[in-house]
Design brief:
Blueprint: E1 6-10, E2 17-21, E3 26-30, H1 33-39, E4 44-50, E5 54-58, E6 61-67, E7 70-75, E8 81-86, E9 92-96, E10 111-112
Parallel strand pairs: 3-10
Antiparallel strand pairs: 1-2, 2-5, 3-4, 4-9, 6-7, 7-8, 8-9
Length: about 140
């Protein structure tokens, strides 16, 4: 029997640390305007885990509800965006791939919200593209 993979991550200042266990249910590279505005970056990569596979192991994850049922988690000290949850997907917890100690562990399996992709961002031809959220 193979042990489940355990990966750590956290914010820029180190005040908030998290741990994920196992493989993500999905990974994606998002081009939506909400991700851009919440992070100040042109795109954002996500690893989506079952909620019981994500644990905050240090600090307190602050939260901001950007619209009804949509919550972004961040470090209140340095402002790093760490997580995303939405009520329409109960039991799932997204973590920003770039905040993992090893972001290479979970490469995006698809690109989503490509209908909002900035014209100067190149798409990855190796993965499926979805104009909106995509399946999963």
């Amino acid at each position: 029997m193979t042990a489940e993979r355990i990966a750590g991550g956290g914010c820029r200042c180190g005040a908030v640390r998290y741990r994920v266990t196992g493989e993500p249910a999905a990974t994606s590279h998002c081009h939506c305007s909400d991700c851009r505005r919440m992070t100040g970056a042109p795109t954002l990569a996500w690893a989506i885990f079952p909620e019981d596979k994500v644990e905050i192991v240090a600090g307190v994850l602050a939260a901001h509800e950007t619209s009804p049922g949509v919550e972004w988690g961040f470090c209140a000290r340095c402002g790093s965006t760490l997580t995303y949850r939405r009520a329409s997907r109960p039991g799932l917890f997204d973590v920003t791939t770039a905040t993992l100690d090893d972001p290479e562990l979970f490469p995006p399996q698809k690109e989503i919200w490509t209908g909002e992709r900035l014209s100067w961002i190149r798409s990855n031809p190796e993965v499926p593209h979805f104009p909106r959220t995509g399946a999963g």
